[in-house]
């Protein structure tokens, strides 16, 4: 297999100078912590804006996005280098097919990730999706089953289509808060996390607006309705998650194939044998000895004795 092509991160120069300055400062922070490579995995349902978010972070159209075409069937890794630092972003196909979790897509993603370490997971959904359902929980559970609960210690939730007018007269911040709380509860339930776990390592939620119609501030930075310049804010949150002290997720053969059922069975053999000896064989021996001791001997046997 050909090695991954790593190009110079020229797209960073396409950002407004204010955004460039903030992003270079954040990359410098990673280098100070001896982080020279960062690998970001982008996952979620189809049509939520995963590929557009990848393009926004890179500052180039590196992944094809079309409202009239389905997502690619395979993951795509985009690598960019800047001043000795390498950023890898892995875009993945949507995890839902025909109303169910696409197990085949998950297997393709896991095998694509073989021998790679996931530093940060971006779990992408839409801010303008007004409710959650069992399918959301199933997607979170599928990700957890594939990569372990630890993946959520290295994650953040990204909500796209953030330039909207909230329904029912809610303020923007109230609507964002309610949507965030609903999704965080889905993650907690789907991943089997305790409330304590969520307090110790909270999962941040970040807003994104990939549209070319996104409003801008006086520095020409793309901003949200609350005035936040969202690209540097997203990168800042990614850096914070990458620096939170938890371990990255190494996708090795064992993680892909799961535990060997034969090996698990071998570990139980000593316990099974001990159980059989003490609770079955022992009792049989005791019964035989009891029968022998209480046996009534015939008269001829007593005479011969």
Automatic annotation (TrEMBL):
This is Translocase of chloroplast. It comes from the Eukaryota. GTP binds at residues 47-52, 66-71, 161, 209-210. One of its GO terms (molecular function) is GTP binding. Gene3D superfamilies: P-loop containing nucleotide triphosphate hydrolases. Keywords: Chloroplast, GTP-binding, Hydrolase, Magnesium, Membrane, Metal-binding, Nucleotide-binding, Plastid, Plastid outer membrane, Protein transport, Transmembrane, Transmembrane helix, Transport. Homodimer. Pfam families: AIG1. Residues 35-259 form the AIG1-type G domain. Mg(2+) binds at residues 51, 69. Its EC number is 3.6.5.-. Belongs to the TRAFAC class TrmE-Era-EngA-EngB-Septin-like GTPase superfamily. AIG1/Toc34/Toc159-like paraseptin GTPase family. TOC34 subfamily. It is found in: Plastid, Chloroplast outer membrane. One of its GO terms (cellular component) is chloroplast outer membrane. CDD domains: Toc34_like. It is an enzyme of class 3 (hydrolase). One of its GO terms (biological process) is intracellular protein transport. GTPase involved in protein precursor import into chloroplasts. Seems to recognize chloroplast-destined precursor proteins and regulate their presentation to the translocation channel through GTP hydrolysis. InterPro entries: G_AIG1 (IPR006703), GIMA/IAN/Toc (IPR045058), P-loop_NTPase (IPR027417), Toc34 (IPR005688).
